[in-house]
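Go through this chain.

——
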Amino acid sequence: MTVQQQRFSPEAVASWSAALRRDGYCIIPDAVDTSAVDTLAGDLAGAFETTPAASGPFYGPWTKRFHGLLGRSAEMDSFVRDPLILSIAEEILLSGCEVIQLNLTQAIEIMPGGREQPPHRDQDMWPVRQPGLEYLVNVMWPFTPYTAENGATIVWPGSHLRQDEIVLDSNEAIVAEMAPGSALLFLGSTLHAGGANRTTESRRGMIVSYSLGWLKPYELPWLAYPPEIARTFPRELAKLAGYRSHRPNLGTFEGRCASDLLSEDVTPKGAVDALRPEQEALIEQYYTGPFDGGQHGFAAPPRK
């Protein structure tokens, strides 16, 4: 039995989800076996070495970042679909969507001399905010120990409940120190920042984030994982990575679920509606009458 299986239970999901809702973050110690971290870090070591430094005031030229990690290491699947982590993400997000999706996988290195990142909330990449709705759950996985000295993530507890405040007192922040194998989870509404690296060694890790299935993700999945790559993934991983439509009719290709692209069958097929049951019921009522529009109604097609 793996460490992930040992730590997974409905009670654990409920407990960590409650902490995440209360504080805006939580740190799960020993979430995965360190051997899995070592394997993944080894698989990505070459990319860390060859990736150029980032640019811009937000990323910072003292960092390296690269993406598409599902295509770079088979070990990624055990992190992305860790049963405890994935269940917590679903517990937080499924009240606002039918299915969740991968928002991004990003490897991050903060090099020696790197300064502190500006505090920010990741949900601000989307310009609309709906009170009470979380858009995003981030999971930070360290490859090297995260310490206050080498740039561990800085988090402002409770900041998800103070979203109108752009900047909070630094004295209210905590430094998310943790060892490889542990995981830091924080909401898209939580104020946070990458710390300053005041050591002579790089700080390496990765962030995996999950978002509402109907949002445009940070990383375009069909470019990161085109069909010829996605076909090599377990089917559930491919769905999480974008090969799944979200009702009504979102994320389709040629009017069909994008999962069709995982098939070798190239026979032409017609478009197929992917509607929610209540929408199908409204349409049926519209055509058979009498039609009252239901609670929310729908945009009826013009009669000719």
